[in-house]
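HUMAN: Forgive my ignorance: could you write out one protein's sequence and backbone structure tokens?

ASSISTANT:
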Amino acid sequence: MKFLHGSATALITPFTQDGVNFAALEKILFYQMQGGTDAVVILGTTGEPATMTEAEKEEVIRFCVEKVAGHMRVVVGTGSNCTQHAVEATRLAERLGADGVLAVTPYYNKCTQEGIVRYYTAVCAATSLPVIAYNVPPRTGVNILPATAQRIAEISNLAGIKEASGNMAQVLETMRLCRGGCDIYSGEDALNLPILLSGGEAVISVVSNLAPRQVKALTEYALSGDLPAARKASEALLPLASACFAEVNPIPVKYGMNLLGFAAGLPREPLTELSFAYRPHLVSAMQAIGLEVKA
């Protein structure tokens, strides 16, 4: 099942003290459309769903689906450490018009590899939408091993695996075993180029909140086989990728979006505002690729 191709943005959720800033969210979505982004992934890690109410999450899904219909795909984060909750969130996303869902591995519980298979089997059975498995063991404590990835890739609507393990050897083995089953997407900005050149179909990028046009260009160069241009685009973006992960995501990227004038607000506690020590690095990395810092 071919679903994503090119660049997808792991979108931030802009907040005010009172709730979601929908005026800012509309501007952010338009910025992504202008930048050529192929899909927005909402309510993933970068969107801070862990600190949002169920009502807020539903509002955000409805709003994004309405605003970008026909322009970009909308993928909704529905993963949970409770399988039934993930199933219910996935069904809701489908009812609200999502194009696909992103289901992070169960976190904190630290399930077995068999538990991972049963989890994705249940989520996929709950929907006709394409499902993306999200492997990010540094956050969840659970790692989709390549042999397990091969098993879930056989599920008909398991469209892809977002790989953010940071282990390129594992990514390559997962690709080898899943080829012909499901696609692999880069979930780590620093590894976008090698993953794309090794057969990845898309990136799900944090950096593209700030630089959608530049990340889109990188994917186009890589996927078309223009290695010199892809390498140049990647090397230009690497300092920004480093700056965006100087502290826990989405702390730096939200600060950067405020610098671009998008009224992203602060991350919700327990996340904090970007430390002063990291701000000059972020500003210089943004300016180096031509982004206009307004504050």
